[in-house]
Give the backbone structure.
Amino acid sequence: MEYILQDYENINKLGYNKGAKMKIKGVIMVIIVLMFFNCEKNDTKKLVSISQSKNNKKVNLMPIPKEVHLLKEKHYINEDFKLSVEGKTGKMVYVNSTRFLRRLSGRTGLFFDQDFITTESKCDSAELKIISDELGEVKLNADESYFLEISENEIFLKANKENGIIYGLETLLQLLKSDQNGYYFQTCKIKDKPRFPWRGLMIDVCRHFYPVNVIKRNIDAMLAVKMNVLHLHLSEDQGFRIESKVFPKLHEKGSDGLYFTQSQIKEIIEYARVRGIRVIPEFDMPSHTTSWFVGYPELSSKDTVYSVERTWGIQDPAMNPVSEYTYQFLDKFIAEMVKLFPDEYFHIGGDENNGNHWKENENVQKYMKENDIKDKHELQTKFNQKILKILTKYNKKMVGWDEILQPQMPNNIVIQSWRGKKEMIKAAKKGYNTILSNGYYIDLFWNTQRHYLNDPVMKNANLNPEVEKNILGGEVTSWAEFTTSENVDTRIWPRTAAIAERFWSPRYIKDIDDMYRRLEVINFHLEEIGLTHIKNREMGIRRLANGQDVNPLRNLINVVEPIENYTRHHTRGEKKRYLQQSPLTRVVDFSYSDASVARKIRRATDEYIENYSSTKVEKSSLYFTNNPKEYLVNELNKLSVNNKKLAPIIGNSSILKEIKPLSKSISKVANIGLEAIDKLESNKTISKGKVEKYLKIINDSKEPIAELENRIIPAVEKLVITVSLK
Amino acid sequence: MEYILQDYENINKLGYNKGAKMKIKGVIMVIIVLMFFNCEKNDTKKLVSISQSKNNKKVNLMPIPKEVHLLKEKHYINEDFKLSVEGKTGKMVYVNSTRFLRRLSGRTGLFFDQDFITTESKCDSAELKIISDELGEVKLNADESYFLEISENEIFLKANKENGIIYGLETLLQLLKSDQNGYYFQTCKIKDKPRFPWRGLMIDVCRHFYPVNVIKRNIDAMLAVKMNVLHLHLSEDQGFRIESKVFPKLHEKGSDGLYFTQSQIKEIIEYARVRGIRVIPEFDMPSHTTSWFVGYPELSSKDTVYSVERTWGIQDPAMNPVSEYTYQFLDKFIAEMVKLFPDEYFHIGGDENNGNHWKENENVQKYMKENDIKDKHELQTKFNQKILKILTKYNKKMVGWDEILQPQMPNNIVIQSWRGKKEMIKAAKKGYNTILSNGYYIDLFWNTQRHYLNDPVMKNANLNPEVEKNILGGEVTSWAEFTTSENVDTRIWPRTAAIAERFWSPRYIKDIDDMYRRLEVINFHLEEIGLTHIKNREMGIRRLANGQDVNPLRNLINVVEPIENYTRHHTRGEKKRYLQQSPLTRVVDFSYSDASVARKIRRATDEYIENYSSTKVEKSSLYFTNNPKEYLVNELNKLSVNNKKLAPIIGNSSILKEIKPLSKSISKVANIGLEAIDKLESNKTISKGKVEKYLKIINDSKEPIAELENRIIPAVEKLVITVSLK
């Protein structure tokens, strides 16, 4: 799982939002503005139309549908609101239309009459008419399209299958707004379907285990942003997380008691199914398998006593690829698991086998010699071929990480690419179905924008349609070395919502400002379905402040970000390295990889500098209700005095000691920023010596403290340089 | 479930905290202060000793142990902290000592080496030595005592059974503090055991259903405050919440799909068992049974079509007490259930049968005539006798609400008293075992103090020891008409922690100020174990503010309380009455029945007035770091301008419209309070006309708005009257 940084293509940042500023007057009933946003040659049908209401309110949809025609009326709702369900409908529609009612009622406080929508729910007077032609299906390439039409008096939601209906309901909820007269949906017509059929989230429940409710709330969030694959990483060196009745020592010895029972797994799968989400199990093999060997050492390549691994990183243990026992075991085990998981795909991992235990094993070496197998890759392919045979017997298709792609493997397997897009495209060109995860490693502490702009099929990839079709979509991967039930939602969300848009919406939807604007709204509504991504950060801050004022600590957290990539592993030295049982409750664990205030400070700085040097009249931007300078000065002032407020709090909460120098440095840097602005405003300069001194302070502040980076530094650095260039 | 208000005994409010001000100097190593707090004749062994450290820091224990000797050293901990487990230990100790380690590590950020404590965990160098003589047992009258000794270098935790160990670990965590040098436990000796053996929480999962994780987090919270009975109210008119394999239509037709599967129930019971908590199921009968009849109408007294009840209140449907089918059915059903629930007690409800359907049923009437049964009570007793026979056959003891106590019932049943203490004492005197719930109805929106001062055995009850022994303890009841998974924790906690102290600690522990002080700390730590009582209120405020500034709304919520008792049922008129599906997301649903700022304003007012009229020098009190006047003026000023800030927010969030007049009235009343203080300070008077006008405004403001009461009114009223009396 070591991560190779990807090459970004050059991305044109123009897009969606620019067009929204166009305005056509004089059309009375319906103002349709057709906008060809930053059109790309390969994109057809990318008609998106937005009306300009008097209040200049924008749509808060995420993912942006394929086609949106906003109209100018408002469909108000009151306590008489009812929905009806027609056509072929089942549990998918019943559960989700009931959930829709409760969420609508919860947001608005309106007392609706309808209780649980069931087969028997009939309602001729309903203002929301739901019509589904066929029952839903939860499999690759299911029809997920829908059509939504909101007029002043009625709402139609129509789809070929239930899958489309449940997406349409989420879109409808995203359209809810409030004004002086009450709650309303803006009238519109929406025709929607996804760009990619495989829109996944992988959750690693091995490095740290999460109970059923954590998975369920993430499933609800996935539905809210129209994702449709939950990939459960179920076995690892650090834990075997599912009950096996055939080989009970797997979970009994390999899980510390932390695993899903079979009935819990069924519960999860059914919960996901009703929400249009496939569940794909991953049993990583032949490596990443220490936890299997605690109960069944005879599966391993090395005759030793195994215990659940507590450290992170690539481990030596691997299954014995030359023993018949291994394949008999796996045959029986897979036979048991395929009965639980109905999806046609089955993930066998296959990554990061370092081959050390194979090298040490005489039988393995002998077998390789005898069969003319030149390296561990070829041997692993032999292993994979045998596993493929087992899977095929049970009517399952194989999915695996990059490494399973070897010349001898047939191309009916799916390659999940963690290494990079080039590898993926190579595979797609060879005829393999592929999904992209490189660039979507949500555990790397990247900002949203970086993930968002990563496209499985970039415009300039110039793939022919046949090859492009082999790229099924992508998967966000949430590896769990640094997450617990408490903070995992804060890691996955809201960034995954932006990636979900990448998987669903047309490629040309990529305006960063507008993404962040919409994400702020969606983020907030994701709480409604039970996610803890906002509240648990707040809880973390409360706990860290140990009953004292939380504001100074929150101010700090709003401008710092955890260090990126896997550098956290190497920050504490060998003696204090992270173990499975290490606390994940420090400031870094409740900090966010897209610190909002820091981002806005950087943005305000850019806008301020741009305007300062041209007209000195600050423009009002998308972000700043007043002007960027005002925002900047306010925030820097707040940070300037923050250390004074935070220091005594740190004194009474020992867990905060490690951020003492960080807090100091933030206030110092903020002061430099304020001085630079002052000079720019009063048209004065700073002496060269002082500039050098300041830049040195800034440079020194770039050194992470307590695994955190001060993210206002780029802004202050720019301000100082701007003054120095005068 | 209509509630009869109880009579309070006269309570001497002196107590615990007074004694803590004593100080004995000159003892060097150990300062032991023996204090006989407000001694009562019947209390023996109520030795509690508290040292006065230089910093005057107090213990934050809740419940207060039977005996505490605080010493003056500090036992600091660092990353080398380890624990060892000796004697007879099982899952109870392993799970909870592992949880202890993780919570300690989580709070402190310290990286401990130990991972999962198991049979194999040996550690000679451990500084925390845990010694349990016997395995735990989860049944009535289990030995729950423990002894905890913290010295500078070692900590001993010793108990006869594992039960005591897990309580000692909770006590130890409550003792953790932080200073400039790091984290430490104050050295002390604690000898502890509970006052009552039955310390329960009843959760109604029928009016609204909660999934497993909600129950689990409440179980963890129960352990944290040393409660030991989880009473699950599993069937009701509004839902049948457990899977029955024998009579599957019970959950299939009676639950809207919201029920515990049998494997989930087993999961809950095991989770509770490991935490020393008995689980007692309640199947309310013969009334409160509509949901049974949806699938099995033949059980009912009236031949009709039943559907799950959506309204609240007492319903007519009741089981048919004269049909053999009923008893055959219940025999089979109980046989199935007793296999799931290992506790020796089984709750059959028995409350609030209005007898209407019995009156309408010819066979019932005929049977009554033939058997000389004069009323519904006698008939219900016949029914209960038959159920008792079934329970006895399955080795279960019967528990029921007050109504099951009828002359013909034998005294080996347990009476849960919801009607009042007099009834309970009457039963106890007759030799029945009893538990008190009257006064602990946590759904009545009472403040903490009112519940806290309610004692199952008041000092002046003057019971003889034999009778007193029949009073086993009490149960907090959390009825669920107005709670959902989202806000149920905010209703149960933290108030239940104070009641838990009533059940555990000596009777004379009843200082209100100190209870509130400690509750504030315990409240905050209850978050650590997963309770959502703080974070979900904050989430509610965020949602209600609809993305706008949350502070003005929070200011309002901090001074208002939901209207008390069951008046919410009658506030919206028949047409808009509450149904099961009604939204519980309005301001009232995220308001707290012990609004903290309002409470402090009232307290500050009392202190201010007292001092104003005597010396005019404000004393510094337990609550107010500066002085009460300063606190008062600050808070009233904040409220005075709050409406101005809240009004535009209400304008953009229609769900808040209903509190518009409330917000206005709070600012108005705050202004009156400020004026009164101003007059008092400047030694001026207010004209009689103005006083009358103000008192009228205050009086008008007493009318609830949006089911909420302005709780600063008593304070402002006192201020105005004080001025007027000058």
Q: What stands out?
A: Chain B touches chain A through 61 residues (CB under 8 Å). Confidence is low (pLDDT under 50) at residues 1-57 of chain B.
